[in-house]
Amino acid sequence: xxxxxxxxxxxxxxxxxxxxxxxxxxxxxxxxxxxxxxxxxxxxxxxxxxxxxxxxxxxxxxxxxxxxxxxxxxxxxxxxxxxxxxxxxxxxxxxxxxxxxxxxxxxxxxxxxxxxxxxxxxxxxxxxxxxxxxxxxxxxxxxxxxxxxxxxxxxxxxxxxxxxxxxxxxxxxxxxxxxxxxxxxxxxxxxxxxxxxxxxxxxxxxxxxxxxxxxxxxxxxxxxxxxxxxxxxxxxxxxxxxxxxxxxxxxxxxxxxxxxxxxxxxxxxxxxxxxxx
Length: 277
Description:
The protein is an alpha+beta fold. 56% of the residues lie in helices and 18% in strands.
């Protein structure tokens, strides 16, 4: 009888302790869950608004900054929720720091890419929309994220380049300036009239509205080749018009030279055959 009473007493004591624990921690757990859900919603809403605002002013900084701020705010939210439940934040932060150190040692390349992304945003060698030539690829910058830069090539390929490589290597920003010089060379035969060829080329340049009057196009004899007199042509155009002018001018010069009797020479070889008697 006494054993039964003792067992009932212990069970009642355990039930009372469980009820006390539930009454103590249940409100904290519920509040922590509510805080987590509301906090994540607010963070996502804030990052979305920031994304919309920065997207209009600075698309280059947009993705990088939004991703970084979102990650920092979520880490702070998780630490706050842990402290609400009763987890010692000092120990929690120490654990995060140790884990961060271990992850940092394991992901040194990613940290280098992160540092490279920061350097790109500070010094701005290029921005979203620029055409760059880097790491053997030529294309338009579509996005600069925390670790990588996304480039779409002109033959419709997507290239993901680590920011660390971009910040530590030579790259060419093709359309950094509004105007560019279009370098072309046309060869004529040694027997042709140089002044006539120069006059024909100048007329073609004057007729093309895409060629800028200033700086004045340069048309000069660049070299005396093995088979031709090479005339260099250096007009200036808007950056977007450079390649269309380059391609169109080659076609127009060929047709104009044919019409004016000017010869574009090509390598030829005379072969002499000797017959031994």
